[in-house]
Write a structure and sequence with these properties.
The complex is a heterodimer of chains A (389) and B (388).
Chain A lengths: L2 E4 L5 H10 L1 E2 L8 E4 L15 E4 L9 H6 L3 E3 L6 H16 L2 H10 L6 H8 L12 E5 L3 H12 L3 E5 L5 H6 L5 E3 L2 H7 L2 E4 L13 H6 L4 E5 L8 H10 L2 E6 L12 E3 L8 H21 L21 E7 L4 H11 L3 E10 L2 E9 L4 H8 L4 E7 L3
Parallel strand pairs in A: 1-2, 1-3, 3-4, 4-5, 6-7, 6-9, 7-8, 9-10, 10-11, 11-12
Antiparallel strand pairs in A: 13-15, 13-16, 14-15
Helix pairs in contact in A: 1-11, 3-6
Chain B lengths: L1 E5 L5 H7 L3 E3 L8 E4 L15 E4 L9 H7 L2 E3 L6 H16 L2 H10 L6 H8 L12 E5 L3 H12 L3 E5 L5 H6 L5 E3 L2 H7 L2 E4 L13 H6 L4 E5 L8 H10 L2 E6 L12 E3 L8 H21 L20 E8 L4 H11 L4 E9 L2 E8 L5 H8 L4 E8 L1
Parallel strand pairs in B: 1-2, 1-3, 3-4, 4-5, 6-7, 6-9, 7-8, 9-10, 10-11, 11-12
Antiparallel strand pairs in B: 13-15, 13-16, 14-15
Helix pairs in contact in B: 1-11, 3-6
Classes of the chains: A alpha/beta (389), B alpha/beta (388).
Chain lengths: 389, 388
């Protein structure tokens, strides 16, 4: 039985699910796989026996992905498990940016002991009035699990919704309300939207994608919402645009020395995924993915290896090869297998960035010699044999 | 040309909506119509010229309805024009009740000078975590313009919605998402729902409708939202239930000495309808009602006269006759018109309390003399001749 180490507390529902299939490991050294939430793993030694790390959540900044890849450790995350939690926070953010509900509740608190607070409120409330979101235009940048839900929520709240995502997946496209208007240029969002919500992963490519020019291009009085990552926005430029009034409000889930001193910013304490439901969903999804990988070799929602899903094992065993994404790897594997007298029944290979996953099923039994030869191919990080339970 | 006097700032889209045939006047005594928001008219004498008052908003506490009715002044309000404004407030209220977003913002504020605020937030945030709306049960009491929108919004946020309204109208039944469960026994709302929101008018019947027993019948951890009127809830009983933790949170738009000292209550200063769009909608709607009344004699959304709608004026002329709600008035009115040899093409008469309003389409024009003869009939206190 595989043993799992939980680096952080995971939800009760997740734990119950986990220990139906796996055994607990007290330390990382004893573990075949780890489940982590926010613990920083950059400075932690990765034991040789560790096969996988599942992040119960989306962001993987706390995990050294490259180092894990080279050690043959598959890192998973759980995109979409927290999507509804983030969506609801985006809706709250839009409403709070539109009307000063917080300021008004504070006003009532400050006047709690005034006997005429009710009638006084009728005069005071003018300063807290605002606008509605129905009829306004919402631009959603990035239509993954979260962005698609946000776009649909916008539609159902009576907004006009523009969606931008150059890498739109079939799943997301399928789930989108067909009144979401798909635009091909980021500029279409910037020039037309009253509310702009960003839902793209933080990568080198997306760093600062909402920069000085993009902010300048946005409509006067625009509200920006950032529940993705603070690095996506040039926050120095945002601070100036808020100061000048060009941007009405910046609603962000990321507190840092810049955002906490911005005028007209609403800074949340990274609450996007902090709901009981999201934690339970993330944990359940992490457990499912570890189960698929450890027991079947299937790689689903990995952030450092290609995703391959051959379904349940069809033959006596399945070989998982984690390797560098360089030419002629498959060729070498097939020759070695052929030379070992085995016939390949099923095989799948998928790359992601610099690394790749290959799953191989053959008729006939593998010998240690064949497996060793594959393991010693230059660029192979790890080979592993899994057999049906 | 009708003259309109605006008390309070009335949104320009509203005065524009009056259209040709109307002009604004600074003199209240010259006006046939008054547009008003919250300014009190209780101490105001109305001239004989004044025909109607349009309140851009729902509440009419600032207008002497009975005195207006007695003078034949039709008062309108604009129910539903603020419905979306209130609906969005209810959604915000549910989300703020479900997660301590505000507590998190305050934490960030208190730690704004900590250079490691981001990392610290990761540790602190569990104090502000909460739950989601999707999958929870929402009970909506009262399915009028606002309640129906709230019910539909709940559905679109993935909630299971239970709706209760013994007076549900066809119009709102039509607009309801068909997955909203129509509940006949209000007890089912108390026992089934995680969130309960009230959208009924405040009347003698509905006063305290959420009382001690109703609160006790609710689920532990229920969130109660009140963006209708504070008098609907027995707030003293509620304060105890909040203190004990039986009710998790009270989101109310009504500040008073009880709500401001409640535990676990978020009190806003009557912001439900305070949006630019709601103000615009109210002004446009009030303008439309005034216009239809002055040009056609039709009454829609009056708070002191019954609804009368005979469509646009297409006959030779229309007479509007205000009369006391006593016997044989219609007989005398129609008798006088017939005696003048004029055919009555359409007629509607609607009473409201002591007063009544009779609208008649005539087959040919009548002269002032007949109008005066009608006005002289005992019990008739105003006659308007509306010509095309």
């Amino acid at each position: 039985m595989y043993r799992i180490h939980c680096m952080n507390n995971i939800s009760q529902a997740g734990l119950e699910k986990l220990y139906r299939t796996f055994a607990p490991a007290k330390t990382l050294e004893q573990a075949d796989a780890a489940i982590v939430r926010s613990t920083n793993m950059h400075d932690i030694d990765l034991p040789a026996g560790l096969l996988a790390i599942a992040r119960a959540g989306t962001g993987v900044n706390n995990i050294p992905l490259d180092r894990c890849a080279k050690r043959g450790i598959v890192v998973f995350n759980t995109p979409g498990a927290n999507a509804n939690a983030v969506k609801e926070l985006v809706v709250a953010g839009m409403l709070m940016a539109s009307r000063d509900i917080m300021g008004s509740a504070q006003w009532v608190s400050d006047h709690a002991d005034v006997e005429t607070v009710g009638t006084d409120a009728e005069r005071a409330k003018n300063q807290f009035g605002g606008t509605e979101i129905a009829g306004k235009t919402l631009g959603v940048i990035g239509l993954g699990a979260i962005g698609a839900m946000v776009a649909n929520a916008g539609r159902r709240l009576g907004m006009h919704v523009l969606g931008f995502d150059p890498h739109l997946s079939i799943t997301a496209a399928w789930s989108l309300d067909h009144h979401v208007h798909y635009v091909r240029r980021l500029a279409d969002i910037l020039e037309n939207a009253d509310y702009i919500s960003i839902h793209v992963p933080a990568t080198d490519k997306t760093r600062g994608m909402i920069g000085r020019d993009q902010i300048a291009q946005a409509k006067d009085g625009v509200v920006f919402l950032n529940f993705a990552r603070d690095t996506l926005v040039d926050e120095q430029a945002m601070a100036r645009a808020l100061e000048s009034g060009h941007v009405r409000r910046y609603v962000t889930d990321f507190a840092n020395p810049l955002t906490t001193h911005m005028s007209n910013a609403l800074v949340f304490s990274h609450l996007g995924a902090s709901t009981r439901e999201a934690e339970a969903n993330c944990a359940a999804m992490a457990v499912d993915q570890l189960q698929e990988y450890l027991l079947q070799g299937n790689v689903i929602n990995s952030v450092n290896f290609g995703e391959v899903d051959l379904g349940p094992i069809q033959t006596d065993e399945r070989i998982v090869v984690l390797h560098k994404n360089i030419p002629n790897m498959i060729g070498q594997f097939s020759s070695i297998i052929a030379e070992g007298g085995l016939n390949i029944e099923n095989m799948a290979n998928k790359r992601r960035g610099d690394s790749a996953t290959t799953l191989i099923e053959t008729s006939g039994s593998w010998s240690d010699a064949v497996l060793d030869r594959i393991s010693s191919v230059e660029g192979v990080y790890r080979t592993r044999m899994v057999a049906p339970q | 040309m009708y003259k309109v006097h605006c008390l309070n700032n009335i949104a320009k889209v509203g005065t524009d909506a009056l259209g040709a045939g109307f002009s604004l006047t600074d003199s209240i005594d010259e006006a046939e119509a008054i547009m008003v928001r919250s300014a009190s008219l209780h101490g105001t004498e109305f001239s004989d010229r004044l025909l109607t008052i349009g309140r851009a908003g729902a509440g009419v506490n600032n207008i002497p309805l009975e005195r207006c009715a007695a003078q034949g002044i039709v008062v309108f309000n604009t129910p539903g024009a603020n419905a979306n404004g209130v609906k969005e407030m209810v959604i915000a209220g549910m989300l703020l009740a479900a997660r301590d977003i505000v507590g998190g913002i305050e934490w960030v504020d208190e730690n704004s000078d900590d250079p490691n605020v981001g990392r610290q937030a990761e540790k602190a945030k569990k104090d502000f975590a909460g739950t989601e709306l999707a999958g929870k049960n929402l009970g909506v009491i009262g399915l009028g313009a606002i309640g129906a929108m709230v019910a539909n919004a709940g559905r679109s946020l993935g909630m299971h919605v239970y709706g209760y309204d013994p007076y549900l109208s066809v119009k709102y039944a039509w607009s309801l998402d068909r997955h909203v469960r129509h509940i006949n026994n209000i007890g089912e709302i108390w026992s089934s729902c995680d969130y309960i929101t009230i959208h009924v008018p405040a009347t003698a019947k509905t006063k305290g409708m959420i009382g001690r027993d109703e609160i006790a019948a609710m689920r532990d951890g229920t969130v109660l939202l009140n963006y209708a009127r504070d008098s609907l809830v027995d707030e003293r009983a509620l304060a105890e239930a909040l203190q004990e933790g039986h009710i998790a949170r009270y989101m109310t738009d009504f500040a008073n000495s009880v709500t401001t000292s409640m535990a676990h209550a978020t009190v806003t200063p009557h912001l439900g309808a305070s949006t630019k769009e709601a103000e615009d909608n109210c002004a446009v709607m009030a303008a439309g009602e005034i216009r239809d009344y002055l040009e056609n004699g039709n009454i829609t959304n009056s708070v002191n006269y019954g609804a009368v709608d005979m469509g646009p004026l297409e006959s030779a002329m229309r007479l509007a006759v205000f009369h006391l709600n006593v016997t044989n008035m219609i007989g005398q009115i129609t008798g006088a018109i017939s005696a003048a040899g004029v055919n009555i093409e359409n007629m509607t008469d609607k009473s409201a309390g002591n007063y009544a309003y009779c609208l008649l389409d005539l087959g040919s024009e009548v002269d002032e003399e007949l109008v005066e003869r009608l006005a002289a009939i005992d019990g008739i206190y105003r006659v308007r001749a509306i010509r095309r």
